[in-house]
Design goal:
DNA-binding, alpha/beta, two-stranded antiparallel ribbon, D-Maltodextrin-Binding Protein, domain 2, 7-stranded mixed beta sheet, plasmid, HTH-type_LysR_regulators, LysR_HTH_N, WH_DNA-bd_sf
Length: 299
């Protein structure tokens, strides 16, 4: 069997996502190229690695064995780059981080900036994912560090406090909802929304609407929280954004901010790893830095 590192990285991505399409995207390959690589891996090894079905793919027993060894190899490669990087100026190291929307857009840029600035030879591969997917990915060893909602099942992962993520409704000052001190999500569903373009947070919000047997009435979908706040302030509709984003925009112009009473709207975020002992020195340093930053903010 002649599997290269791209093959192994792709296979782990597919196993983790349960989908060749999503796995190919995570590995940075086109679907045709990924499908051809997977097919060649099975032909070369004379073994079926994936069971393909209408709902996605799952590894066979042979596939599980390959995934186990692939994780070990990728971890060793990461350690090698980290250790050699201490001696070779031109070699770059990489830490992979998975985080939910609020952490990616609102919290991590500030906390990561000083750490990265002090380490010019280090890159952070940051991917946005839903919390449940993050927990699976970290457990499977597909990424070193995850930032997720503590409400999801995390199994045997190591958790440290990271931040509190509160979702609020933003609306124009003269909007009917702005007269209330706080509202329930169900009360907002009769109005038109300014939503996010996809992403883990929007998926989470849509799922809450689905539980109530309905869907958001979306007028437009934007890519940034600031854009949502700006349009909400102009009376285009209402938005649902992290409180940090709403308060940042309120410094620029007047906008109504309404806390949501629903339990799911206030989430305690945690930073997680599978095992501190398995982390490369760089990944461990970043993990400790991010956890320590939360403690400083609490003070």
């Amino acid at each position: 069997m002649r599997f290269d590192l791209t093959d192994l990285r792709l296979f782990l991505a597919v196993v983790n996502a349960g989908s060749i399409t999503h796995g190919a995207s995570d590995a940075g390959l086109s679907l045709p190229a990924a499908s051809e690589r997977l097919r060649d891996m099975e032909i070369d090894g004379e073994v079926v690695l994936l069971e393909r079905g209408r709902r996605g793919v799952v590894p066979t027993e042979a596939g599980e064995a390959l995934a186990h060894h692939a994780r070990a190899i990728m971890h060793q490669m990461s350690q090698m780059r980290d250790e050699i990087g201490q001696y070779a100026k031109g070699l770059r190291a990489n830490v992979r981080v998975l985080a939910n929307t609020a952490a990616t857009a609102e919290i991590l840029p500030t906390r990561l900036a000083p750490w990265l600035a002090a380490r010019p030879q280090v890159d952070v591969e940051l991917r946005e994912r839903q919390s449940t997917e993050i927990a699976r990915s970290i457990s499977a060893g597909f990424a070193e560090i995850g930032i997720l909602s503590s409400a999801v099942e995390t199994g045997g992962l190591i958790l440290r406090p990271f931040a509190i993520d509160r979702l609020v409704v933003v609306a124009a000052r003269d909007h009917p909802l702005s007269k209330r001190p706080r509202i329930r999500f169900v009360d907002a569903l009769e109005y038109h929304f300014i939503s996010l373009v996809g992403g883990a947070l929007q998926d989470h919000i849509d799922a809450q609407a689905a539980k109530l047997g309905t869907r958001l009435k979306t007028r437009i979908a934007l890519r940034s929280f600031d854009g949502i706040c700006r349009m909400a302030g102009e009376g285009v509709g209402i938005g649902l954004v992290p409180e940090t984003a709403a308060r940042r925009y309120k410094r620029i112009t007047q906008i109504g901010i309404l806390p949501l009473q629903d339990d799911w709207a206030t989430r305690r975020l945690s930073i997680c790893v599978r095992s501190e002992k398995e982390l490369t020195p760089l990944a461990l340093d970043l993990f400790q830095h991010l956890a320590a930053e939360e403690q400083r903010e609490d003070r």
